[in-house]
Design a protein that fits this description.
7 helices, single chain, globular, mainly alpha
Length: 180
């Protein structure tokens, strides 16, 4: 494949991995900017969004693991410049946009949604929508570690324990484990 096609494929895969591991909302991924939302700290990246950028009006910050940070660094060093070079008209975010579309502009939340649905459908014969990564993270935590279910609220950047059904299910799962 061409370097541009490889860059698009890498970007798409990285966005899916990022959504699965960091479980952000789609909008927060589309507005990510280098140096503002994504900052390198030593051998890992920190992601942070202001309260105004978050659905719950509460700032959110997290440190990404070394594996995801390495994938992000490769994207920034090798593939992002290939995508950025396609830009004919520099946008206000030309130097800071994390995700570029095929023409070098900032990737919109609609485009991110569509690429996730397309790529997961091609890979797994069933499309996943971006919010499903958040559902999966909460469900996995509930099934694997029901004793830690209270971590769902901060993991999903919720203001309160709005996922009460999961807490009830987690209690049942934990009771089932104890009974077993």
């Amino acid at each position: 494949t061409t370097p541009h096609k490889r860059a698009v494929l890498y970007r798409d895969g990285l966005i899916i991995v990022f959504m699965a591991l960091a479980v952000p909302r789609l909008h927060t991924v589309s507005v990510m900017r280098l140096g503002q939302h994504l900052v390198r700290q030593g051998n890992v990246f920190r992601v942070a969004w202001s309260a105004a950028e978050m659905k719950e009006d509460r700032a959110h910050e997290a440190v990404l693991g070394p594996e995801l940070s390495d994938l992000l660094q490769r994207y920034l060093d090798e593939f992002r410049p290939v995508l950025a070079a396609k830009s004919r008209t520099p946008s206000p975010h030309a130097n800071t946009a994390d995700w570029f579309n095929k023409r070098g502009g900032a990737l919109s939340s609609t485009s991110i949604y569509e690429l996730i649905v397309e790529r997961t459908g091609a890979a797994f014969d069933e499309s996943m929508f971006p919010h499903a990564f958040r559902h999966s993270a909460a469900t996995t935590l509930m099934l694997e570690r029901p004793d830690l279910i209270k971590l769902v609220t901060p993991l999903l950047q919720h203001r309160d324990s709005s996922s009460r059904e999961l807490y009830v299910l987690a209690d049942h799962v934990e009771a089932g484990h104890r009974y077993g």
